[in-house]
Amino acid sequence: MSNQRIPTLYEWLGGIDALTRLTTRFYEHVKADSLLGPVFAHMGADHPSHLAAFLAEVFGGPNTYSTQHGGHPHMIQQHLNRHLSQDQRRRWVGLLLETADELGMPDDPEFRSALVGYLEWGSRLAVINSQPGATADQDAPMPKWGWGEVKGPYTG
Fold first, then answer.
1. Sign of the dihedral defined by the CA atoms of residues 91, 19, 117, 41, in that order
2. Which of 3, 66, 71, 139 stands the most exposed, by the fewest C-beta atoms within 10 Å?
3. pLDDT tens, 55-94?
């Protein structure tokens, strides 16, 4: 029996450089999209790198987003009162997956299943947190996504 360590999703996808390429190209597509462009019209130039750092941490990489940007509570706060729709959510997920294909990110079923699982979970949470009356739990733990196992604020 082998004692080989299983790589994290972060390692498998190519680390922060791969995530930065993904989020940078993705937001180029978003800006040109008729449904999403207006939502991100006032996005700062650092938005792609912030999302890359967030995804890196979720997928088992360094905790840069938590230490430099406020962790999951900060991400929740970014969505408060944005009134996001399911159509916008679906387009966001679809464009991100199309961009992953465009850039040749790993396309093995196990990785893509984990990626899609997180994007569906996280984007649905973003929609919930964007509705009137939603608040950010300042103790919300950072989600941790792995190969077929989920550890998020609602799963333990």
1. negative
2. 3
3. 999 999 999 988 888 877 678 777 777 888 999 999 999 9
Flag whether 42 is in a domain.
yes
Report the CATH number at residue 56. 1.10.490.10
Distance CA 15, CA 52 (A): 10
pLDDT tens figures, 16-29: 999 999 999 999 99
The answer as to whether 145 is a domain residue is yes
pLDDT at 79: 76
Q: Please report, for residues 95, 119, 138, the alpha-carbon distance to residue 142 in angstroms, rounded to integers and kept in the order given.
A: 24, 14, 11
Q: Which two tokens stand for residue 156?
A: 């333990």
Determine the structural domain holding residue 67 and report its residue range: 9-151
Q: Are strands 144-145 and 150-151 parallel, antiparallel or unpaired?
A: antiparallel
Domain count, the chain: 1
Of 124, 149, 126, the C-alpha closest to 9 is 149
Cα angle, residue 154 at apex, residues 12 and 7 outer, rounded to 5°? 15
Q: Which residues of 122-134 are buried (b: 16+ CB within 10 A; e: fewer)?
A: bbebbbebbeeee
Any domain includes 3: no
- Amino acid of residue 18: A
